[in-house]
Amino acid sequence: MLARLKKYRIFSKLLALAAAVILWFVVMSIINPDLEVSFSDVKVTFNGKTELYNNKGYTILSDTDMEMDVVLLGKRNDVLELSKADIELICDVSQISGDGENRIMCSVNTPKGDSVTVVNRTELIATVRVDEIVERKIDIRVETSGTLAENLRVGTITLSTDSAVVRGPAMEVAEITHAVVTVPLYGIENSMTQTLDVTLFNAADEVVQSQYVQLITKTVDVEVPVQMIKELPLRITLNNGGGLTENEVETLITPSKITVIGERSAVEEVEYLSLGMIDLDGIGDGLTTERDFMLPSGLSCMSDRSSATITVTVKDIIVKTFELTNINFIPGLSNDIYDFTPVDTHVTVRLRGNATLLNTITASDFTAIVMVSELDPTEEGILLAPVQVLFKPAVNAVLTEKEYTMVLSVTEIVPDEPVAPIDPDDPNNPDDPNQPDPAALPPEEQERLDNKFHGIG
Hints:
457 residues; mainly beta; 5-stranded mixed sheet
């Protein structure tokens, strides 16, 4: 009896459970009540970015990787059929009208359309920061890395353009102060052109890395001139003359060398710099002169000098004395009033020059000219007449005295007494052929006739 009662109770419970399930199924399937479901971390999709840029010149600066929780309300069957992937959370930025931060209410789309409503719509607000898009030119600086060989140097590096164009939000573009092109020098031996990347920097000299800034000028062509430094000797050409050759002189050039710089190919062709030519004829004991050196095209001097001092000195200088007896008088030893008589028999000169050269010279190589024409005596006496000394050969030697003189004795010229004119009709005319020959007359008669002819007695 008890066993039968126990079985009945179990059957009753099972029947109640089945009835409850059937009732729940009827409620859920037929009645289908409203249900509220929350979907976490739904990704926000930003629409209208192109319109924002094209129409208003703005771009989004804030992070667009944004997620929100969405709460939906709808019929149970509809809501339960949705997954997070079915929910489209949209932030339309095309409606933004000003730069800075903007709060935009997001919209929600689901495959269920209007049968599902958004419970927390007022909470679905995205904060978006935008800025105006500007374009600006940034100056490009040139930097180098590495070094060249010791005798090489980089010339003035030139760029295909001096500025880089950047485009982006005004705020971020304003932080860019300059652009840099870094030229690697290691291993460069000749001038070359490279295409190098442009890097943007801020005032703190930090590299600017922004996803919102667009570098329009990404690369530039860089022309790198490589110049050579070389020390070149200075040379002077000596032209033999005056009996001197380069063997009889010593030459000193100060400075003796000049450091030049220029295009490598041009520098390598030059072995020395010329200071021109000096003619040894007429340099005396020597000379000191300043001469400009001429630089070939493409070369420049690394110092401010453009000239050198040249000192040419004649070797083995001696003074030798010569007594000149070959003397000419101009115009002569007399004029209309005075006669000039040399008191000295010679003119002494001293010649200074190279010993070897002077040993080849004799007194016959000189001419002494007494300039009588320059004298203007007013009475008899002794005068010093200027003497001009000339070399016959072209010798490089110097007279030690600048002026020479010769002592002349000055005497007045006494004119002859005038002779009376002879009358052809005079019976005493000696030219009369009828007169007796004086040589045939006695001495007393000859004396008488002479005295008579001269008006004596």
